[in-house]
Fold each of these.
Amino acid sequence: MSIDDLPPLREVIREHGLSALKSLGQNFLLDLNLTSKIARTAGRLEDVTVVEVGPGPGGLTRAILALGARKVVAIERDRRCVAALADVAARYPDRLEIVEGDALEADYRALVSAEGRACIIANLPYNVATPLLVGWLSADPWPPWYESLTLMFQREVAERIVAAPGTNHYGRLAILTGWRAQARIAFDVPASAFVPPPKVTSSVVHIVPRPHPLPCDLRALERVTEAAFGQRRKMLRQSLKSLGVDVGELLGVAGIEPTERAERVPVEGFVALANAWVALRKGSATDGNAGGPQDVSVASS
Ligand code: SAM
């Protein structure tokens, strides 16, 4: 099936006056070889419903449909882009559903309910890319409704997603990702591939959820990593003081040296810390003190 029998993307952009808005992170991809390469990174799409965030003028949308996705549910905030996608919708009857709205607010399970296998593919708007990823990785229940995430990020964010312990980029994002999924950088995309070009290099990241992450309360993991990386250069015996339990006991139960620093502790160590924290808080609650993991707020990055 060819994607060449649609109007060229530059024409679509001109016709619909799609001047790129910085406030919506609009950096469009017009090279259909590149959009096909991104879509292929997700694997076989034949039986799959693809959720695309921010279809824009539709370059990636065309590639996903041409590769045979059963259906694309495209969520777009910019009304001008929604109008510009009419030709693509007409070319692929019944296979493109355009949802006008904010991807941060979307009820994804409802959008793909009864649709069978699903994945997300997106050239993300960079201003909301990290909160979107954190939201997808925080899905409840787990395993999530999607089989994979194939996402374009700024290279620096991609490095934070896949970072290993002991490296500069290792932090809360790598821990959440590593706990719930396996992630790799598939390839880099130069700034010159986008219209208009962003200031930085970008990377496509492929993320596959782990069916059985190590048992752990998400909010507790968020809380301990927030404390640990709030003072990332300090020893844990210092940085974890804000957790409101005996830090020596906490580290002892988790099996972590008090002199260790956050950036060297692997995901398994943070899971052990989160579980130990929940257990110690429960213990102190039974002793008469209020509180438990329920009162922990979920951090968004
Ligand atoms: N997919 C297109 C492409 O590759 O050429 C456009 C990608 S552009 C980087 C990001 C797109 O996301 C824009 O079309 C923008 O309007 C849209 N967008 C920005 N914020 C959004 C949000 N919160 N929810 C849904 N779409 C959003």
Note: The radius of gyration is 21 Å.
Amino acid sequence: MTPTITAFERSPDRGKGLARDMRVRWALEEVGQPYDVRLLSFSEMKESAHRMLHPFGQIPTYEEGDLVLFESGAIVFHIAERHAGLLPHDANATVEPPIVDRSMATILERDKTWYEERLPILEDRVRVRLDELSSRLGRADWLDDAFSAGDLLMVTVLRRLNGSGILEKYPNLSAYIARGEARPAYKRAFDDQLAVFTGKPPTG
Ligand code: GTB
């Protein structure tokens, strides 16, 4: 059965692969599972039809027959459980919260009087986790022996720091992100979500 996922009809990132449907698309591409995408406007996400699938009125969701899932991490692990090659031995929920806090502040709090004071505090919290992650990764290619769903999630989390100037101090993490982005499945997923924004079909 072909699963259907939901994604932004018009993503605020203009197709840079930062919205969380990207990690679901990437996981499906990794395992070679074809899928359909239902695009939603911001107002459609808040309608009761979509809230039946996602109580918070957000994307992504995942429908497969009677099964309905929300939470991108849960969706990726559902895919990983049913297909070979993605099940990790490590997870990553510790690194994402400070990165999201920083990202939300740069989007929503830039005009506040205390923004300039708060940003370095948030960035220090990000650096604490990046220091730990960088040590944990060391010279390895992936967090586990082979590429897994844990890497897929971690790379999508770290990409939210692009343009922040923070990643440049972590050459092994920058190389890790580049390795993830170089995977053919990543490229297919990225091109598909970018095509939603540009309206042009993927070229590859
Ligand atoms: N915990 C949930 C999950 O992991 O699935 C969080 C889902 C979530 O945050 N969804 C966001 C959403 O639907 C889109 S991904 N927001 C609309 C709303 O709440 O009304 C978060 C996101 C959005 C945009 C960017 N961007 O443009 O850079 C990056 C990340």
Note: Residues 11-13, 18-20, 45, 57-60, 71-73 surround S-(P-nitrobenzyl)glutathione (CB under 6 Å).
